[in-house]
Design brief:
By secondary structure, the chain is an alpha/beta fold. The chain contains ten helices and twelve strands. The strands form two sheets. The chain has an eight-stranded mixed sheet with strand order 1-11-12-8-7-4-5-6. A four-stranded mixed sheet has the order 3-2-9-10. A hairpin with a 3-residue loop joins β11 (298-305) and β12 (309-316). α1 (31-51) packs across α10. Mean pLDDT is 83; it is low at 1-28 and 132-141.
């Protein structure tokens, strides 16, 4: 189930490793500050685009972001068709729903990590709103509505979002996983949720309005999904989602794999259906992700680097 499935390969993460912080963004306020921020973001994007390089699993090297986007545009339908078939044929397999989602047995540990990140984010938001330094998450008020995008069976909803939010909307493109999520969550949790059958590459303003109307969202969470989208579709998806965030308060959390180990940390790695994985996905470095965020009109409010992942909290640029 292409952009809804989570982990690129087994053992792509080390959930128990201590995160090291990427420099968080501190936002100024007011029209002049917003204009300055936009200009700065555009300058950074231009510089970043020139540095985007990487290779695929067929031996091709891409010398620029434009070259990558041209290839993705040319093979877009092939990529998504191969991914859909991959998940229909069992994908990662696994003996439990959690293993099916992440490709290994670390799903519960990842949930603990994710909840800790969310608590740090909520504490930071509350500290800014209340002008104090109280970071005790037990005093963090529950929020109203969160969205789990590429939800699969609802692992993030169960282990993270329903622990801090009153209701969750699950968006999942694979019909079988969407149906299984009601079983995985259980009757009481499922009663707090709504379920939307939709692929992330098909998100647009019309489908969002049809599904959710004009109700704003407090938090959106996308984990191990953007790697299955082309860069242009990532930007369009994030733009659409940003338009549904609660004005001034809504946050979009993105967690994705990053190059690590023997791989160059400044180069993307792309698998294609013509390679041995038989599907499309791309592992992007930090600079690559930030370029796509900027193109989508989002700024990084908080970022943390794990051994194999980067996690970002994003806000819409005023």
């Amino acid at each position: 189930m292409s952009p809804s499935k989570k982990n690129k390969k087994k053992n792509r993460r080390q959930p128990n490793a201590k995160d090291s912080s990427i420099q968080p963004s501190r936002q100024r306020h007011g029209p002049a500050a917003a204009e300055s921020l936009v200009l700065q973001q555009h300058q950074q994007a231009a510089a970043a685009a020139a540095e985007i390089k990487g290779s695929d699993d067929c031996g091709r090297f891409y010398h620029s972001h434009d070259e990558l986007e041209r290839a993705q545009r040319m093979h877009r339908e092939e990529y998504y068709a191969a991914n859909a078939l991959y998940w229909i044929n069992g994908g990662y397999g696994g003996s439990t729903d959690d293993e099916a989602m992440v490709g290994d047995t670390d799903g519960l540990a990842d949930g603990v990590e994710g909840l800790a990140f969310l608590d740090r984010l909520l504490a930071q938001m509350d500290s800014g709103a209340n002008n104090n330094n109280n970071n005790n998450h037990h005093k963090t008020p529950r929020r109203a509505v969160a969205v789990d995008l590429g939800a699969g069976v609802g692992r993030v909803t169960k282990l993270i979002l329903l622990k801090r939010y009153q209701a969750v909307r699950l968006v999942e493109g694979d019909d079988a996983y969407s149906k299984q999520s009601r079983v995985y969550l259980g009757r009481k949790r499922a009663a707090k949720c709504t379920f939307t059958h939709l692929w992330l590459q098909d998100l647009n303003d019309q489908t969002m309005e049809h599904e959710w109307g004009g109700e704003p969202v407090d938090l959106m969470w996308i984990q191990w999904c953007l790697q299955y989208l082309t860069d242009e579709d990532v930007v369009q998806c994030l733009k659409t989602l940003a338009g549904k965030l609660r004005l001034g308060l809504g946050v979009l959390v993105v967690k994705e794999n990053r190059p690590f180990g023997t791989a160059r940390e400044d180069r993307f790695q792309m698998d294609t259906p013509r390679g041995e994985s038989l599907r499309y996905d791309i592992t992007r470095p930090d600079l690559h992700h930030r370029l796509l965020f900027q193109k989508a009109g989002l700024s990084v409010d908080l970022a943390e680097q794990g051994v194999e992942t980067n996690t970002y909290a994003l806000r819409k640029i005023p």
